[in-house]
Structures are given as C-alpha cells and as structure tokens.
Amino acid sequence: MDNKSIKKLEADLWEAADLLRQGSKLTSQQYCMPVLGLLFLRYAYSRFKKVEEEILKDRPVRNGRVMPVEASDFAEKSALYLPKEAQYSYLVNLPEDIKAANIVAENGQQMNSLGEVVNHAMELVEAQSEQLAGVLPKEYTNFADDLLAELLRIFNNNALDDVGGDVIGRIYEYFLSKFAPAVASDDGVFFTPKSLVKMIVNILEPTSGVLADIACGSGGMFVQSGDFVNSKGMSANKAMTFYGQEKVEYNAQLCLMNMAVHGLTGVIKSGNEANTFYNDAHNLVGCCDYVMANPPFNVDKVKAEAAQNAGRLPFGLPGVNKANEVGNANYLWISYFYAYLNETGRAGFVMASSATDSQGKDKDIREQLVKTGHVDVMISVGNNFFYTKSLPCSLWFFDKGKEEELKDKVLFIDARNYFTVVDRTLNEWSDWQLKNMNAIVWLYRGEIDKYQQLIEEYHSVLGDGDFEEILHAQEDRIKELRNEAKAAADNAAKKDKKRIQAEFDEKIAEQEEQLTIAKEAVWLYSKFGDGEYQDIPGFCKIVYTTEENKPEEDGAISIEEKAWSLTPGAYVGVAPIEDDGVDFHERMGEIHEELLMLQAESNRLMETISKNMKEMGI
C-alpha cells in the first residue's frame, strides 16, 4: 500500500469513527481512550495472526492433528498471545443480542452487553503482558451496543490486514493527533507534533543504548526512535532500552499503548513518583546515551528546596522567589536533560523560545552550559507547529561526545520561515525539509558522505540532471496538464466532465508532489553544492563559544559577546532581499491602471443593476 492510499485509509477511518462520536452523547475525552484501545486490539490481532501463521509452519503433528498453539509459543517470538475471547474476529462476529448468547467470563459471571465483553477482552490481554497491566481502557459499557459494534466493524477494515503493524501504528498516531486539539486538558501536552519529534531523532541518530524521556506524554520520542533504529536494519527492542516518566497517568496509558502498537517495550512510570521536579524515578543520572523530551513550558510554583534535594542540577537552581519557589522551571528541565547524559550522551528537546536568552539565574546557568562545549545545535521553530497553541519554540541539542574540533562551536539554524503549511492553524516540516536541515547538521559535523547520499536520493526520485532544469521542466509539465484538462473537459459530454477532471486532477497532484521535491532539492543544492558547509545569511551560522577561542577573522563572532544568548536569530543575520527583476515604479503604474479599470467595471455593473431593478419596479 503506497503512502497516498495509507493517507486515504487514515482519513476514512477517522471520518467514520468521528461521525459515530458526533451521533452519540460522548465527549471527545470519553471517546478518545476507548477508540485508541480498539485500534490497539486490532493491531494486536493482526500481529497475532501473522505470528500464529509462522508458528504453524513448523508445528508438530500428533495422531494426525496439528498441535494447538500456546501462549509460550508466542512468548518465544516476543509476541502477544490472545485468548479466543480477546481476538478481534471473535468480537466483531458476536451476535447482536449479547444477553441471549449466554456469554460467560472465567469467573462464571454472565455478560449482558457488548461493552462488558470488550472490557473482558481487554482484561484478558492485560493478563498476557506485564507492561500492559492496568493500562488498557475498560469503559466500554459507556457505549451503546450498536455504537460499539459499528466501531468494531469500522476497524475490521481488510486493508489493515494488508498493511501490517507499522501502518496500524501510524493510524494510531494519526488518531492521537486528531484527538489532541479536542481532548487536551493542558494545551495538548501529551502529543508532540511528529515533525518536531522526527527532527530531534534525526539529529541525535539513536542506534543503541539507554534512551530516556522524562516528560514522555504519549511516547512519540520512543516510537520515532524505534522506527529510526529499525530502518537501519537493527531491532529497536534489542538495541535500545526505553525509560519514561509521565506524571499524568492518562498520558502514560497512551504512551504504553502507543509503544505496544509499534512493538516496543519500555519502563514507563507515572503518578507522583514520576513528577520529574522531585523524583528521578529510574535513577538514570549520568547513565543515558540519549535524552529526548518535550517538557511543559514555563511551569511555575516548583518548590525550590524539594527540587534541590532531588538533585540533577549541575549548574545550580534557577531563580527562586520570596515564596521559595522556582518561578519558571525551564532551566530545571534543561539541567535535568544535561545531568542524565553519560560521558558521550546526546540530548534533544523542545523548549520555549524565551529560554534562549532569559536573564537572571537562567543566564548564569546558560553561560556555564555553553562553556562545557557540549551545546551542539540550536534551531528556532516558527509559529503553529503545535495543535493547540500558535507559540514559537526552539529545539536544543547537547552532545557530550562532540569531536574535538567542534567543542568550541555551536551551529545555529533559524527555521522560523522554513516550513510547509498544512492548514490555516498548523505548520510542519515535510520529510524533505527534515532531510535538508539534517543535511546542514551533517555538513557541520563533517559527515559529507551522508549529505552526498541525500543528493543521490533526490536524483533517484527526480532523475539525473540539473535540479533547476528539472524544476522548470516540472512547472512546464503542470501547465501543459492544466491546459489539457481544460480542453478535455470543454470537449467532453456533460456526463463525462467530472470523471475527466478527476483523472487530470490526480495526474496534476502527482506532478505537483514532484515539483515540491524539486524545489527542496534546488533549495539545498543551491546553498551547499556537492557538500561544502557555508553560513547562509538569515538561516544558519556556526558560532564560537567564547572570545578566547574565537579566531581572528572577519565575521567571526562568539556567544560570549552576545551575552550568552542561544537565540539563532541573534547570529544568523538577515537574508538578502532577492531582486525579482521587476521595476517598482513601472509595476506600480501597471497596478494603478488595473485599479482604474476595475473601478470603471464596477461602476458599469452598478448602473446595470440599478437599471434592472427600476425595470422590475423595485
């Protein structure tokens, strides 16, 4: 199944499920977890059938009968065993009248509604997995039987058997993102936009070891890291150990389900013991190869004494007010991320933009941090990347294992004007934009081979030749298709017009997708050619940390002389204004003439309308 088909499947499933919600009396909050639970159950069944098929291939035969599969067979393959009553096919094929079917649980209790049967199925699944114990939703008796039966039917789509677990995981994340704006009680804190997560994972490049997210929300960092490791031909569960903390238990449930849907295992702690300000729930200080997080921004009223007693503050406490509280916890989080790293560890996290140049004790901590030489990359992100807020943010990256020649340097990227518009309220980085920014980091690190592989990837998609020429040819092809579409529609019979237009629209959409890729190829290659890093005014710059290590050369600046600011915009400068070849005065004259013509046409129309109204006696 190609990407376009998967997107259609996502959208169709969401539309069907959400229409049911709108027709019920359930709020998004009541609906979210149970729906995600059914998606999880559908994934578990899909994976169960696949593993069962593998087991039966070599199954011994006794007395002419194939030996039945058992839970231990699945445990050997790190898969979840499903008793018959927890299998999706069993649930979706139940009779309409559950009470009359006389369905009895293990304890002998008769179940009288479909909701009770699904709750029981969730309990059976939890009994097979220590990680899922107490996690799966069991509120299905809140659903009318006909509504629940219809939901089961929607997720029984045969396409889900064809696409496998990876895509069901993607659909789970799609549903999570769609629920985020409506469900979030704390500004969507449980869901970090996927493009931000991907950017963090791509720059950190996790391969093996311990990964911690101490504000893990719904587990996006774990899932994306798992995908990254698996894409390199390794097994994420064997190569990585995942640890998470999430104070809100609801979010921790989402996280554990999300990980399970993606075939990942990890240790996630929630509740009071997972309040990161006061607890290191996993005792991970100095132990992590990777730290990733999107913590809540600008938290106030953190008890200073309790936070200090909890440790993990290598640079000291941020500012404390008269009530002995930390008034803004951003630098508590920043200190924790640094403290958890081992001697070669890397960290990447989302942070409020204001933290890059906040003053007072924050500035003192930032100075100490810069002087370690472990600040690696800083990226400014524009508005509308979050589902429920339009605020900008920054991505911070630490690397305790930086190459010696990079220890006195930091790469700044101002990406506030580099994004793809999804809709009026949401922006993101496309996959190619993510690759382009990743390529800048590769060049900064001297990894030219990775950059060149990306250029080869562009050619494999677009074809050989000059990217500028490919782009212009693509623009011409789209113009031709539009003209062909108009001519074909004009000459077609009325009954065929819609079909013909739809066929051309599909062709044009494919070409426009290629055009978008060509534009990104031109964007990257025009700046860095075959692989030589250079500062790009208004976008990226390599800056020295202190005046002492800054070389004597024109244009060299240090973070120290900018008062230890880590704001990319303070360093990258302003992009030069491109000459579009249009004479300003000449164009203004043309616009004035066009305006006069439009005004004259407007007056003629008004006269005609007035005349017609008089003739009608109005």
TrEMBL record:
Record-linked InterPro entries: D12N6_MeTrfase_N, DNA_methylase_A-5, SAM-dependent_MTases_sf, T1MK-like_N_sf, Type-I_RE_MTase_Subunit
Q: Which residues form the DNA methylase adenine-specific domain?
A: 165-451
Please name the SUPFAM superfamilies in this protein's record.
S-adenosyl-L-methionine-dependent methyltransferases (SSF53335)
Q: Which EC number(s) are documented for this chain?
A: 2.1.1.72
Q: Which residues form a coiled coil?
A: 471-521
GO BP annotation list? DNA restriction-modification system; methylation
Keywords from UniProt, A to Z, are:
Coiled coil, Methyltransferase, Restriction system, S-adenosyl-L-methionine, Transferase
Catalysis performed (reactions): a 2'-deoxyadenosine in DNA + S-adenosyl-L-methionine = an N(6)-methyl-2'-deoxyadenosine in DNA + S-adenosyl-L-homocysteine + H(+)
Q: Which family does it belong to?
A: Belongs to the N(4)/N(6)-methyltransferase family.
> Mind telling me what this protein is named?
site-specific DNA-methyltransferase (adenine-specific)
Q: Which organism is it from?
A: Pseudobutyrivibrio xylanivorans
Upper lineage is: Bacteria, Bacillati, Bacillota, Clostridia, Lachnospirales
